[in-house]
Design a protein that fits this description.
Blueprint: H1 3-23, H2 30-35, E1 42-49, H3 50-55, H4 57-70, E2 74-81, H5 86-96, E3 102-106, H6 110-115, H7 135-141, E4 142-143, E5 146-147, E6 150-162, H8 163-170, H9 179-192, H10 209-218, E7 224-226, E8 232-234, H11 239-255, H12 267-272, E9 278-282, H13 285-290, E10 303-306, E11 320-327, H14 334-344, H15 347-355, H16 363-366, H17 376-381, H18 394-399, H19 402-411, H20 416-430
Parallel strand pairs: 1-2, 1-3
Antiparallel strand pairs: 3-11, 4-5, 6-9, 6-10, 6-11, 7-8
Helix pairs in contact: 4-14, 8-9, 10-11, 19-20
Length: 435
């Protein structure tokens, strides 16, 4: 995208914010809220994902009580959303002019709403721990040096493995620290289970582009880069990126003895059903592997997490996951909405997440989790994690399955070089245009 268009989009977001502030009346202005919160009136509508309701309801209650004590005349309306329906619901609400004041967004969703002017800029300095926010999360909220959302919590992909299978085949229940040692262990596990049809020592789905791009990152490559002319361009065909893609494909071919065309959505089921010794996934996938229908509850003390060894003697870079909280640009009460987020992301609130082994939004409170067995793998993967290009057309790139199709083509026999060049050409057509 040209710089002029980027500036125009940023201006649109600012104008939208100004309209929201102007139309909100006394409760919406920053000055009136600061004068006497007890006299502020109006309402604040908050959309959170359903994990907040099921996993840390005490955090929600604590913040809502704190907000009500500060703003006794302001009505707080809380709604829980599901990941399946949230985007459609939000797009519909924005179009109808009744968007929530506060919305939780997955960190891959933020750019779309920033570029369309749907989110209001907020003052970074007014939020606790802003100087130690996890960079990968803060970057998903930042555009042209302005902050459009606030980091909420983080996530990272790690090695999830059956420690008993490692113990039986190698004499150790631990995942080795280096990739070469891991391969030696996986070879022993595969040999010991050769009688089990479809068993994969490492279950690495062929179209699993998040894993593939972790290997690309490990070699110094990238999906796309931003050039001096103000444009993004695909860089999968760069030598370092090709090296990472080839490494990933080689692992899929060697260790995945299931359907290599299947994606990663049900990989935890494979581990839970005893058809894999290890996979690369999100920590929450452990619960799927242990559930009665999708896995086996008897594996409770057997399935464990570990940092995933990567090339060149270093850990495999992880994709940074997580959620952010934003004030919508047409909010009638932007100052109140921002204050609710301020309370919800305070150090006091983040500690509730930490106590539940959820990765917080900042490095200070993350530190204890880096040495805790239950969280060490993910917590140590977060600081150096990678993220998708924060480009205006990334949504279209992902929607058209360009990376998935590239990997499938390679597994069907197309060379890495040719498949990467074709993917770059498609990326270049889409990535600079708002999706």
């Amino acid at each position: 995208m040209k710089r002029q268009l980027l500036a125009a989009l940023s201006t649109t977001a600012l104008l939208a914010t100004a309209v929201g502030c102007a139309s909100g009346g006394p409760a919406a202005s920053k000055s009136s809220a600061a004068v006497d919160p007890r006299t502020a009136t109006g309402s604040v509508t908050v959309w959170l994902m359903n994990e907040a309701q099921t996993t840390w309801p005490e955090l929600v209650q604590q913040v809502n009580d704190e907000f009500a004590a500060k703003y006794p005349k302001v009505e707080l309306k809380l709604s829980y959303q599901t990941w399946t329906d949230k985007i459609a619901n939000l797009d519909g609400a924005i179009k109808a002019g009744n968007a929530p004041d506060v919305v939780e967004l997955g960190n891959t969703e933020t750019m779309k709403y920033i570029l369309t002017g749907a989110l209001a800029p907020v003052d970074r300095s007014s939020f606790e721990n802003n100087g130690t926010w996890i960079k990968g999360l803060a970057d998903t909220c930042t555009y042209q040096d302005k902050l459009y959302c606030v980091p909420y919590y983080a996530g990272a992909r790690v090695g999830i493995y059956n420690s008993q299978l490692f113990q039986d085949a190698t004499g150790s229940a631990e995942v080795p620290k280096t990739e070469d040692e891991l391969f030696a262990a996986l070879d022993k596990i595969q040999a010991k289970n050769k009688g089990s049809a479809g068993f994969s020592a490492l279950y690495l789905p062929g179209p699993y582009w998040y894993a593939a791009m972790s290997y690309v990152t490990a070699y110094g490559g990238a999906i796309a880069r931003f050039d001096n002319a103000g444009n993004w361009h695909g860089t999968l065909s760069d030598p370092k990126s090709q090296q990472g893609i080839q490494h990933f494909v080689d692992l899929v071919k060697k260790y995945n003895h299931g359907d290599v065309k299947a994606n990663e959505l049900n990989q935890a089921n494979v581990l839970g059903k005893g058809k894999a010794a290890m996979l690369y996934g999100n920590g929450w996938e452990v619960s799927v592997a242990l559930a009665p229908i999708t896995g086996d509850p008897k594996l409770k003390d057997t399935v464990k997490l570990a940092g995933m060894p990567g090339p060149n003697g270093k850990p495999l870079p992880s994709f940074i996951g997580g959620s952010d909280l934003a004030v919508t640009s047409k909010s009638q009460s932007p100052a109140l909405a921002a204050d609710w987020i301020r309370m919800f992301t305070s150090a006091k609130s983040q500690q509730i997440l930490v106590d539940k082994d959820t990765l917080p939004n900042n490095l200070d409170q993350l530190a204890p989790l880096r040495s805790k067995p239950e969280t060490a793998a993910a917590a140590n993967a977060v600081p150096d994690a990678w993220f998708i290009p924060m480009a205006p057309g990334w949504g279209a790139v992902e929607k058209q399955n360009i990376l998935v199709n590239m990997l499938n083509d390679i597994l069907k026999g197309k060379s890495v070089e040719d498949a990467a060049k074709a993917a770059d050409a498609q990326i270049d057509q889409l990535i600079n245009n708002p999706s």
